[in-house]
Structure prediction request, 90 residues.
Amino acid sequence: MHYITAVHFATGSREEHIASVRWLNTNGGVSDTSTTAAMVEWLDKGNAAFVGGPNGRVAVGVVRPAGRAPYLRTHADGQWTDNLGSLPTF
Prediction:
């Protein structure tokens, strides 16, 4: 299972400003950093990533606003949420 553990903002502090993410594969213990574009491509291939917290895990999805680059955002209980913005930064 892949968990996003930290984010790097290009500018601002909202999900659409995340330039890259740090992630951990809990099955193999591998940790690395990926650009947002690479993570969007990876998720589009049917892979899944999550943000973990004291209340469980939340899925990471892709938002595709018209005329702008896609970006990452968490999705829980049918609603877009802001869990990525509360992660540590690097």
